[in-house]
Design goal:
54% helix; single chain; 22 helices
Length: 293
């Protein structure tokens, strides 16, 4: 790499020493080039390709090996090899987003597109528009990278299965779904179950849903007992389950439940630090104090 940066002739000489024209077998030639590139520990392979003589930029074995070592090398190959399907496939199998630099024919190629999104779901943003509306492609992308949901077609963003697949992997993505799906209980419960903070993005009428609220109350940094419906705030069984899952929720319970010995005991047995949120009577109870310590 130092030679490459210091002298173009040195690059040419070093590469020339690795030519395996007598081998004939393309696989052996590719392997020889790969061994050469690997010997350049920490080398900037795309730079080497950029500085290589024109004949090597047109050499299949040389470019294939460079792409296998660093897919970004493809952008410095000759136009003919940049459009080579076999090399393009090798590139996206190693770095899906390298699809970005390829021509439209590659972005329209289903096999290349599937290989790209399976390697990195974010590659969905670079595919031809018709694949953004292809359920199989979009699902593959989301399963690899949930954020790929943002690049799906508008119609697929309305698709229940697509949205559910996304929020099961990243609950916060519920903020990107259509408003109608933010009112879908299955979608909302899956989102909150995966990421409690996603509660802020779903329809408010779920504030009275026991399961969804219990899932949300696991994280008291963004949602507390004070945020659930009035009926649930008064539901002893619900509040007890909430403090059992997250003792810090005792702070937001009503005065009645902060004075409930069973409730307080359940909370302090997990986190003794919450005892100061209990009533004075509970704070003075020897048995509760013992549990808190």
């Amino acid at each position: 790499m130092l030679a490459a940066r210091g002298s173009h002739d040195c690059v040419t000489g070093a590469m020339g020493g690795c030519i395996t024209s007598k081998l004939g077998d393309v696989t052996r030639e590719v392997n020889a080039w790969c061994a050469y590139f690997d010997s350049l520990d920490g080398a900037d392979i795309p730079f080497l390709v950029k500085e290589a003589p024109a004949k090597w930029k047109c050499d299949f074995s040389f470019v294939m090996a460079a792409v296998l070592c660093d897919p970004c090398s493809l952008g410095n190959a000759s136009p003919s090899l940049q459009n080579n399907r076999q090399i393009a496939l090798a590139a996206v199998r190693r770095q899906g987003t390298s699809l970005r630099c390829m021509n439209e024919s590659m972005k329209r190629d289903r096999e290349i597109v599937m290989a790209a999104v399976k390697q990195d779901g974010a590659a969905l943003q670079f595919v031809h528009e018709r694949f953004k509306a292809d359920r199989t492609v979009v699902l593959a992308a989301i399963r690899q990278c949930p954020l790929a949901f943002r690049f799906a077609s508008n119609n697929l963003k309305l698709d229940h299965q697509i949205a559910l697949t996304a929020v099961r992997r990243d609950g916060a993505l519920v903020r990107c779904v259509d408003d109608a799906l933010k009112r879908d209980r299955v979608i909302c419960y899956a989102a909150v179950l995966q990421n409690a903070t996603s509660i802020r993005y779903i329809d408010r009428h779920f504030r009275g849903d026991r399961e969804i609220m219990l899932a949300a109350l696991r994280d008291d940094t963004c949602f507390t007992l004070a945020d659930v419906s009035a009926s649930l705030q008064c539901d002893r069984d619900f509040v007890l389950q909430a403090v059992k899952r997250n003792a810090r929720q005792l702070r937001y319970a009503t005065d009645k439940f902060q004075a409930d010995e069973c409730m307080v005991a359940a909370a302090v047995s997990q986190d003794g630090g919450v005892l100061h949120h209990a009533s004075e009577e509970c704070q003075a109870d020897p048995q509760i104090v013992e549990q808190a310590t």
